Amino acid sequence: MKIFIFSLFLLLFSSLCFETFGKNPTDPLQNRQHEKANPNTNASTFNTSTNRKVADLKKKHSRIEKIFNDWQQAVARQNQKAAAALHQEYLREQQDFLKQWNQWEKEAQEQLKKAEKAIGKEAGKIQKDMEEVSQDTKTK
């Protein structure tokens, strides 16, 4: 009895040392994790680009706030000429900010559509693999 338990323990221990124990190497569902993943370099590039764009937009927004505050001070001091010039600069900066914001938002929407499309393709592959396994199971 001791020999049986020892041999069973040895068999279990040795089988746990190998990653492929109990796996079918031809089964695509079990081997999906071993497929080479194509790292999406566009995602990291997009994140860096996004961070840069966000920083640029924050700087632009801070500049707009400063111009607005200067304009308010000029109005409070009743300096009409300075107030008018600052108001025009404020309007120009605000329009430029909105253009940049809309462009950034458009690019983000395009990236989102690409990501959704990639997810849909991957879901289709998974569904196809599941159907193949289902068909293989039915034929056995």
Written description of the protein model:
- This protein is mainly α and 140 residues long.
- The protein is 79% helix and 0% strand.
- The chain has three helices and no strands.
- The protein has helices at 2-16, 41-76, 80-139.
- Helix 2 (41-76) runs antiparallel to helix 3 (80-139).
- The mean pLDDT is 76.
Strand content: under 5%
* Number of DSSP strand runs: 0
- State the major sheet: none
Distance between the termini: 38 Å
What class, by secondary structure content?
mainly alpha
The topology string of helices and strands comes to HHH
Percent helix: over 70%
Shape: rod-shaped
Mean pLDDT: 76
**Radius of gyration, CA atoms, in whole angstroms:** 31 Å
List keywords for this structure.
mainly alpha
